[in-house]
Write a structure and sequence with these properties.
OB fold (Dihydrolipoamide Acetyltransferase, E2P); Rossmann fold; 3 domains; 7-stranded mixed sheet; 11 helices; globular; binds S-adenosylmethionine
Amino acid sequence: MVKYLKNIKIERIGYWGIGITKSDDGKKILIKWGALPGSIVDCVIKKNKKDYLEWHITKVHEYDPKYIDGEIFCPHFFSNINPNLGDNSSIEKHKIWCGWCKWQMISYPKQIELKQEIVEDCFRKVKEKPSFLPIVASPKEKWYRNKIEFSFWVYMAAREWIESKWNLWFHKQWEFSKIIDVDSCWLISDKANSVFEYIKKLCFESGLSTYDQKFNRWFFRHLVIREWVNTKQLMINLAVYPLDKKDEINTDNRENLKKIFKEDEFIKENITSFVITYNDGLADIVRWPNISTENIIGDWYIYEKLILDWIGQEKVESTFRISPFSFFQTNTHWAELLFQTAISNVLEVWEIKWKILDLYCGTGSIGIGFLKAGVWNNLIGIEIVEEAIQDANYNAEINGIKDNCKFIASPSEKVLSKNPEIENELTNIWLVIVDPPREWLHKNVVERISQLKEDNNFKLLYISCNPSTMARDIELFIEKWFKVKSLQAVDMFPQTHHIETVGVLT
Ligand SMILES: C[S@@+](CC[C@H](N)C(=O)[O-])C[C@H]1O[C@@H](n2cnc3c(N)ncnc32)[C@H](O)[C@@H]1O
């Protein structure tokens, strides 16, 4: 079995920025780590599956000049064309550099072009579809994220000037187990960066160690910053390992740090809400079934507004309460743009509409935003996270549409399968919205939506962050009662390979 490939040309790239080409015997070759169309690369094999081989790039011999027309702005950029890296002939050598803005060597107009090609490619097998509408560009190319998560980790040797093994901060890398030290990030605002730097300094000075997964002990685990663009509110969620017998020696240090957080003037001035999450689970995630939390500053919730402004209508503003673990779109201005795009793709004529069924509704932002526009009468929202549903109910109330909304905390696939709680309400549906996580829709959801279509002449609005699973689901829908009316990509994450796609089915 060949373990290395030399001088391979990447034909095209697909979803998740994965390079695609074919082996001599016709097997699909998937190439990760900085793949761009037209590059000539060396690779090492990582997976040999039945249908495909997965390779990782070890060296890029040549880029297609078309795809390196951008400006590399971040010193933490991962690539062997980063001028900040000096002798940089091997990607392998630098593989623990930050993996966020992987596309910064490509100019933004070219990124948009590439994303359009990727989504169109994902849908190439879908029959009888209209041409894709032109991709909607992001209003901002940098500083656009309203949420970022940093990890603390035991130092992984890579940069000689870092001497200590403990107490260093590292930014979560695209490769799960690799973390790097960053001083600031181009994807968040100046304010969020200065809060990050400040909290980092306080933690660094506290004498407490980073969490060590090997021994499941010590302290700092994650720092999550959420900054709302329209309300200017900012939330910190600091995840730490809880105090136990193994760490009694640090009790005073822990208490001191908390006191500093509570009394510090900079924190009071800049942070609306500060939550500490105590997490003793092994997994490298903030949320774990056994977590407990403590709210040391401000309220448990922060609020964001969405301002929808679409042609011919007045601006419509809706307000959302979001608790620390509830989902909210990570680019507020983009969310406004996405919802406007969705609404104008769905609406044909101004007429009285009935009910919206909003599946995977989070805190209700899409459904409530649409209802606030006054076009629809009723909303049923379904979401798996109980807290998000509590937020959704509250959001319906503060937006003055409580009596028109019903939210249910449940997996969509469960509640839709003949659940008496909503069975009687699944009539007069005018619009079904699905905005699922990256995976395919559960087969029960596809089946139930298709059944409902037999009795209700609704449109299906499918919003997705994964065009390849969306394309597969849409193929299933068109086998039943649906036709594809429109498809359009919306760019929420400039400098990265992530893409959002909006589809309307009738
Ligand atoms: C991409 S987010 C969309 C949220 C919301 N539509 C919004 O725009 O804020 C996907 C949501 O699906 C929820 N979710 C995940 N699995 C689910 C399931 N099986 N049933 C219902 N909701 C689910 C997640 O908690 C998350 O809130």
